[in-house]
Design brief:
- By secondary structure, this protein is mainly α.
- The protein has a domain of about 40 residues.
- It is about 50% helix and about 0% strand.
- Helix 1 crosses helix 3.
Length: about 70
């Protein structure tokens, strides 16, 4: 099993932030592999498009209060 020195600071910070510090101590290779998979992009953006082309929808709590 690899030691804590092989875990990157980025993975360590993400694990601590998400409450996975104990899992990182017990299973460092698995947490490292899962974090690396999760940090990769799902795929390339289509040619000619931008990830900021259209804004994400915003949650509006007042809209739900008006419906009642």
């Amino acid at each position: 099993m690899s030691g804590p020195a092989t875990i990157s600071d980025r993975v360590r910070a993400l694990a601590e932030q998400e409450g996975l510090g104990r899992a990182l101590q017990l299973f460092p290779e698995q947490v490292q592999a899962a974090a690396e998979r999760g940090l990769r992009p799902l795929g390339e953006a289509p040619v000619g498009t931008s990830p900021i082309l259209s804004p994400a929808p915003v949650f509006d709590p007042l809209r739900f209060e008006r419906d009642q």
